[in-house]
Amino acid sequence: MPPNQPIGEKEPFYFKSFNNVIGIAHNVTELEAELARLINVDKEAVKYHLREGHIVQWLRYIGEGELAERLTNVTEPEQALQIVRDYLSGKGRNEMRGGRRGQGPRRHHRHAKPY
Prior knowledge:
Layout lengths: L12 E5 L2 E6 L2 H14 L1 H9 L2 H8 L3 H7 L5 H13 L26
Antiparallel strand pairs: 1-2
Helix pairs in contact: 1-2, 1-5, 3-4
């Protein structure tokens, strides 16, 4: 933990290119902003972090397991950015839970008793 980091605060994600920090994200909102910016600044660095699973590992570390799962095996920065945007807008949340996407609530039907 860096010397000035408050106790209990999670380590941010550092986008690096050749050992130079080119971006920092402390949360998913900042991750979205940095992805959007870095696609135009150093797309290859973003591809590297996606391909190596660094972003997915960091998301799990900060407690964003659902988003981490959605980004697993994504290697294209534009696709990753869209997934993060969908997640933040709420469109991406809860889609994977229970495998019942778009099916509505479960209904229990009573069977008629034979007479």
